[in-house]
């Protein structure tokens, strides 16, 4: 799974954390990648955040279709 959040100090930065999938739903997720991305302006940052959210929703939808 992926977690995207904005950085409080900078409106041009995104903090992205990608977690390793676990077979146990009660286990704490282990981060594979944790990175800060800094964009040229806050508009590009917002667009990137929206695209990442849309991609995450599409990936979850595809997983559910494979299961069902």
Automatic annotation (TrEMBL):
InterPro entries: CLEC16A/TT9, CLEC16A/TT9_C. It holds the Pfam family CLEC16A_C. It comes from the Eukaryota. Residues 1-68 form the CLEC16A/TT9 C-terminal domain. This is CLEC16A/TT9 C-terminal domain-containing protein.
């Amino acid at each position: 799974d992926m977690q995207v959040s904005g950085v409080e100090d900078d409106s041009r930065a995104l903090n992205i954390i990608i977690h390793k999938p676990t077979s146990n739903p009660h286990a704490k997720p282990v981060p594979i990648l944790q990175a800060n991305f800094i964009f040229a302006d806050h508009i590009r940052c917002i667009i990137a955040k929206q695209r990442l959210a849309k991609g995450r929703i599409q990936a979850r939808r595809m997983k559910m279709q494979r299961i069902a």
